[in-house]
Amino acid sequence: MSAFKITGGRKLHGDLNVQGAKNSVLPLLAACFLCEGQSILHNCPKLSDVNAALDILECLGCRCKREGTTVTVDSQNCDMFEVPECLMREMRSSIIFMGAVAARTGKALMSLPGGCELGPRPIDIHIEALKKMGAVIECESGKLICEFPEGIKAADIYLRFPSVGATENAMITATVASGTTVIRNAAKEPEIIDLAGFLNKAGACVLGAGTDTVTVIGAHKLYGCEHTVMPDRIVAATCMYAVAAVGGRVRLKNIETEHLLPIISTLTDAGCNLEYDGHQIVIVSHSRPHNFDTVSTQPYPGFPTDAGPLLIAMSSVSKGTGVFIENIFDRRFGYIDELNRMGANIKTVGRVAIISGVRHLDAANVCAADLRGGAALAVALMASHGTATVKNTEYIDRGYDGFEHTFANIGADITRI
Ligand code: EPU
Predict the structure, then answer these.
(1) Is 3.65.10.10 the CATH classification of the domain at 22-228?
(2) Environment class of 120 (CB within 10 Å of its CB; exposed 0-12, middle 13-18, buried 19+)
(3) pLDDT tens across the length of the chain (417 residues)
(4) Is 47 left (phi over 0), alpha (psi -120 to 50) or beta?
(5) How far is the CA of 128 from the centre of ligand 1 (A)?
(6) Catalytic residue among 35, 59, 116, 205
(7) Is the CB of 91 under 6 A from ligand 1?
(8) Which of 98, 188, 263, 328 for mutating ligand 1's site (highest number of atoms within 8 Å of CB)?
(9) CB-hemisphere CA count at 13 Å for 189?
């Protein structure tokens, strides 16, 4: 178990390259299982969640290799279909492998993902979508068995909610269906567009990714291909809210500015100075930020739930009062008690948080209990007076490639202990 020791009050200055997106790599790795031969992913961040996905692929018979930020997956002759429970538990989003494994081998056997630190994580939308394509799915004693006894059928699928993972599972599976599948009320997140780009290079025909109707014209086979993972918009948001909370001037490179528009809007309202073009942003903050009025999380292109904790970290030291409404997950406020331990003034009622900004936070030892909440605590400590630790950094390591180096390189006083 490790912790970050942080001394607050150091302004952030410099340039940083934003890592590849965790939430894009994971479905891309699942899709690699369906591609015969070798797939090469560039800009692949070093994360414990990515390692867990690579362990799953190896367990299924793939040969995986990492050289720097390039990962190669060779899925020639893979015919294994069982993902062991210990690996399913390591990463909740391992359900994303279900469609790919069943489509490649005719059967997938995995355990139910269960709940996680953000609340219950049902998979009914994934199951409904796969059933529409001919899957027979049984769930017994915590095990899921998914089979396509009559092959994968093209289908017209309506998702009751635009679930990111269910859209990805359905898209991946539909690439090898016989005929044309239409996924309606699909998620529109940029990671969906990245996945479609990869699948199309692998020989699929996916149209409309990034809109609410995705059409997949089934092909017989997919083949390994080469792809560069899109930049991580939540890591970019983390750095920007840190600059806003702490002060300084940072240039973020290797980003897609268009993916960050809801974040940029809150930072402009906070009084930060932003200059940007397509792939980089310079953010400057010289004074205490202004609090937002109301922000509510929504599926893309709305404000992303994953950036909420980082916004609240900034908001806790802002001028005025902000109201934040979490619409995607049931329990995403676990870190707020820890922010209050540092002297923040945040009240929560159900999925609503009311943040009355304080002039400064006092460093206090805190514990991360989830990925983004953990990152928010580290940002809050950077903005605090004094020195303290964030424990349980393993949560932060799930989504940030060298969190401490990223921030130390732009002037934060942060070390891993
Ligand atoms: N949901 C259902 N049934 C389902 C699937 C989802 O009720 O079958 C509900 C979930 O319980 C949740 C909501 O729908 O309340 C959204 O879930 P979604 O399926 O869209 O999320 P996900 O695919 O499980 C991805 C990201 C999350 C991110 C969400 C929302 C990955 C690997 N994870 O999860 O990322 O918060 O989309 O944008 O892509 C993170 O990076 O910290 C993270 C949690």
Answers:
(1) yes
(2) exposed
(3) 899 999 999 999 999 999 999 999 999 999 999 999 999 999 999 999 999 999 999 999 999 999 999 999 999 878 899 998 888 888 778 899 999 999 999 999 998 875 567 777 789 999 999 999 999 999 888 889 999 999 999 999 999 999 999 999 999 999 999 999 999 999 999 999 999 999 999 999 999 999 999 999 998 789 999 999 999 999 999 999 999 999 999 999 999 999 999 999 999 999 999 999 999 999 999 999 999 999 999 999 999 999 999 999 999 999 999 999 999 998 899 999 999 999 999 999 999 999 999 999 999 999 999 999 999 999 999 999 999 999 999 999 999 999 999 999 999 999 999
(4) beta
(5) 16
(6) 116
(7) no
(8) 328
(9) 26
- Dihedral (Cα; 396, 402, 407, 412), 10-degree rounding: 90
CATH topology of domain 3-19+231-416: UDP-n-acetylglucosamine1-carboxyvinyl-transferase; Chain (3.65.10)
CA angle 59, 63, 69 (to 5 degrees): 110
Whether the predicted model's global pTM rises above the 0.85 cut: yes
- Sketch the domain layout of the chain as residue ranges: 3-19+231-416, 22-228
Residue 64: active-site member: no
